[in-house]
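I am writing to request your help with a piece of structural work I have in hand. I set the record out below, with my sincere thanks for your time.
___
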Amino acid sequence: QVQVVESGGGLVQPGGSLRLSCAVSGVISNIRRMAWYRQAPGKQRESVAIIDSGGSTIYADAVKGRFTISRDNAKNTIYLQMNSLKAEDTAVYYCNVRTLWDDWGQGTQVTVSA
């Protein structure tokens, strides 16, 4: 039904940048909000950035000032621009789509290492 596909992950040095993309396709109705989550090995999945239907955004304290979530409604796509990356940002990043329920992508690996 609904497909959620993340892309853009990879290996980057500390201080570097990456831009993640999340493309949504299939049967979609009334997206309330979209979000980026991440999960590091041995840790719980945590919310990184949220954007609602009105464009309001919420960021985790750990990424404020460094990450920016944005939306292209025409393409049913959201992005996560990640700047000044730190080793602590290493995780699998997941896209979350909320309508009346949650849909998730498969995740994309981000590794920050010197």
Observations:
- The chain has no helices and eleven strands.
- Residues 41 and 91 are 7 Å apart (CA to CA).
- The two ends are 40 Å apart (CA to CA).
